[in-house]
Amino acid sequence: MAKDKRSKAHPPAASSSATAATPSWPPFKPPLPVVDLTLEPLIEDKVVVLRSFFPRSLCRDYVSFLRGLPLITTPGKPKRGDAVRVNDRYQIDDATFANRLWTETGLKEAVAGEDVAHLWGGQVVGLNPNIRIYRYSPGQFFDAHYDDFNYVSLKTEAGAALPARTTWTLLLYLTSSADGCIGGETVFHPYDNNFSAKDEIAVSLETGMLLLHKHGDDCLLHEGREVTAGEKWVIRTDLCVKR
Ligand SMILES: O=C(O)CCC(=O)C(=O)O
Ligand SMILES: [Fe+2]
Questions:
Q1: Protein residue closest via CA to atom 5 of ligand 1
Q2: Taking the model in full, what pTM does it have?
Q3: How far is the CA of 211 from the centre of ligand 2 (A)?
Q4: Would you call 84 exposed, middle or buried from its count of C-beta atoms within 10 A (0-12, 13-18, 19+)?
Q5: Could you report the predicted ipTM of this complex, rounded to two decimals?
Q6: 193 CA distance to ligand 2 centroid (A)?
Q7: Any idea what DSSP says for residue 2?
Q8: Residue with CA closest to ligand 1 atom 1
């Protein structure tokens, strides 16, 4: 796939859903983080993970809760330029929940470390309020694509608007083979169109693991591989830097 004909993940989120009721997300119990969060590099300067970001019990609570949300199956035929994505999806603008994920989990501190601060492309200020939930059932997948950045507006503690830009995609896996989900790996292709198994880097699902990958101009071609049994549940948002 030529870089100038990039297949994009999906169009920028509409910002008009501010009036939609936000879900009553379950509390983070036990209090987070449950382990010392250490960023583990998987691909230098491009992909990092934080294992056990959510404990297994919390992942279970979240999956039961998320099941009750009005997920919508994406059409198999995308608009021109968008990647084929077949999954069930829910999306909401929820600055309060984005802020909880940022400040009540240890994430803010984990990405502030001196050794990793250079990765994020600016001064990190929070998470994208555009929260996306994905459920992949057997046969569902997210075809190879690049994630684009977006301009967003965050809120400071004093309530003022803070112009920001997304720089890294955040995926929080809530299920894995330990819960009966087979397949569904997030696979990165460092050499763009060269889909050779020897070069690809497949990240297996791990319940409660958080993955961050750089997006925008430096985004690696990646895909969500087909799920063949069970269900893959993911919470998606993005890391934001000051604009
Ligand atoms: O579900 C996955 O593993 C990948 C999701 C993804 O690429 C995206 O949300 O842009
Ligand atoms: Fe993506």
A1: 224
A2: 0.92
A3: 11
A4: middle
A5: 0.99
A6: 15
A7: -
A8: 224
